[in-house]
Amino acid sequence: MFPSEIPHRSQEPLAKHTSYRIGGPAEVFALPRTKEHLWTLGTYLQKNQTPYCILGNGSNVVAPDEGIQGVVICTKELEAFLEFLPSQKVHASASTLNSRLLNACASQGLGGIEALSGVPGNLGGAIKMNAGTAEGWIEDALLEVELVQLKGGERKVPKRELVYSYREQHYMQAGELVYAATLQLRPEEPAQIKARLAESIRKRKAAQPIELPSCGSVFRNPKGQNAWKLIADAGLRGHKVGGARFSEKHCNFIVNEGGATKSDVLALIELAKEKVKAHSGVDLHEEVIVLQAQVLR
Ligand SMILES: Cc1cc2nc3c(=O)[nH]c(=O)nc-3n(C[C@H](O)[C@H](O)[C@H](O)COP(=O)(O)OP(=O)(O)OC[C@H]3O[C@@H](n4cnc5c(N)ncnc54)[C@H](O)[C@@H]3O)c2cc1C
């Protein structure tokens, strides 16, 4: 029996929790609130060898049409905190939305993470994905990351051990989940930070199809090149499969125009890899993650 003290829903449609609006039902959609909930969940998962996966704000994943057999651990309702510490440090929970973090820091006159502006996830997802833009990545501001181990225990990872690369981290182990982090920001006039945030949102609105469901950029930019240009040069701008299309506005975005499935998105991904390789000789690599469950060992 699933532990009743952990808030959860049965057969919850994942399409409700992903920015793509794609995904069938999660057998169990768990919304743990505390570390104790996470440890209880871990015991349950291990004892029953039940597959699980972790979901933040669902803005960089494509979820299976058939759903997830097992437990989706969603971090949205993990206890929320956002504390301002001396020397321009901020301690925030994984569940803190990037938009909330940015606005609160700007109001306090703390800058340095504006590259997260318009990135629609929460802090846990940003830390896992090393989210950011050409202007900077979250890793630049991280001082310490607090991980909870589903098998029991927790671990604080200091800056020198926070090994990152483009959209990847290299320090978390299986069964670990980002719980909180401390960031080092820098003092700046609130008005200046807010102006930068507004400018970044303006640019996104002009360049990206943010009015339609998507996961943002589907492919990583190969060194010195833009994935959107490689896709456009391969003749795929506006190409459609089912309900999914390479956006005309920004063709590294696959948008869901209504009723798109995971298979539609994956078909476009495979097509782009094939055509770009044939046209430019470049191998594209996905930034988007296909949500899948694994067993906690
Ligand atoms: C319109 C749009 C624009 C975007 N622009 C950008 C951009 O400019 N730059 C950029 O980097 N990204 C961008 N993205 C992608 C996405 O917003 C980021 O990758 C974001 O950081 C994902 O956070 P999330 O909370 O939504 O994570 P999710 O999508 O829920 O999860 C992403 C991955 O992280 C894991 N994960 C989530 N939370 C945790 C946790 N607490 N502990 C351990 N693992 C966890 C999940 O298992 C999954 O593997 C964009 C997306 C959209 C829809």
Description:
The chain is of the alpha+beta class. The chain has 3 domains: 8-74, 2-Layer Sandwich (Uridine Diphospho-n-acetylenolpyruvylglucosamine Reductase, domain 2), CATH 3.30.43; 82-206, Uridine Diphospho-n-acetylenolpyruvylglucosamine Reductase, domain 3; 209-283, Alpha-Beta Complex (Uridine Diphospho-n-acetylenolpyruvylglucosamine Reductase, domain 1). Helices cover 25% and strands 26% of the residues. The protein contains 6 helices and 20 strands. It has helices at 35-48, 98-107, 123-129, 190-207, 227-233, 262-280, and strands at residues 8-13, 25-30, 52-55, 61-62, 68-74, 82-85, 89-93, 110-111, 132-133, 136-137, 142-149, 154-158, 164-165, 168-169, 176-184, 186-187, 240-241, 244-246, 254-256, 289-290. The strands form 7 sheets. It has a 5-stranded antiparallel β-sheet with strand order 6-7-15-11-12. Strand 13 and strand 14 form a beta hairpin. The longest helix has 19 residues, at 262-280. Bound molecules: flavin-adenine dinucleotide. Flavin-adenine dinucleotide binds next to strand 3, helix 3, strand 9 and strand 15.
CATH class of the largest domain: Alpha Beta
Our count of helices gives: 6
Bound molecules: flavin-adenine dinucleotide
N-to-C terminal Cα separation, in Å? 20 Å
Number of domains: 3
**Would you tell me the overall average pLDDT?**
97
Strand order of the largest sheet: 6-7-15-11-12
Beta strands, count: 20
| CATH-assigned fold name of the largest domain | Uridine Diphospho-n-acetylenolpyruvylglucosamine Reductase, domain 3
**Radius of gyration, CA atoms, in whole angstroms:** 19 Å
| Largest beta-sheet details | 5 strands, antiparallel
Order of helices and strands: EEHEEEEEHEHEEEEEEEEHHEEEHE
* Proper CATH architecture of the largest domain: 2-Layer Sandwich
Shape: globular
Structural class: alpha+beta
